[in-house]
Amino acid sequence: MTCYACNYELKPGTTTYFVDLKSCMVIVKNVPCLKCDKCGEVFYSDEVAERLDDIIKQVRSLVTEIAVIEYTDNKAA
Predict the structure, then answer these.
(1) For the stretch 29-56, what's the b/e string if a residue is b when 16 or more beta carbons lie within 10 angstroms of its beta carbon?
(2) How far apart are CA 6 and CA 24, in angstroms?
(3) Global pTM?
(4) What is the pLDDT of residues 12-70, one digit of tens each?
(5) Quick one: which H or E segment has residue 13?
């Protein structure tokens, strides 16, 4: 697969995902992705994007300013 931004080859890797919910900053570590070595663009599979959405929904209910979460494939986590 090639990068949509620069047409360079994408390679499997992991990244850290940041979301500012205004009341809380969420940091999800070790998220699987495809990365472009040339421009640094990051792409997520549909499954990973859905899991990130699930994680964010769970964190919204917590009363905290910063949440640092380790990415897992387990939806029960």
Answers:
(1) eebebbbbeeeebbbbeeebeebbeebb
(2) 33
(3) 0.79
(4) 999 999 999 887 888 999 999 999 999 999 999 999 999 999 999 888 887 677 778 88
(5) strand 10-20
Reading the block at residue 64, the tokens are 């905290």
For 14-59, the DSSP string reads EEEEEEE-SS-EEEEEEEEEEEETTT--EE--HHHHHHHHHHHHHH
Q: For residue 67, which amino acid is it?
A: A
Q: Please give the Cα distance from 37 to 68 (Å, whole number).
A: 26
Q: How far is CA 74 from the centre of its chain?
A: 15
In this structure, which amino acid lies at residue 41?
E
For the chain, which domains are there? 10-70 (3.10.20)
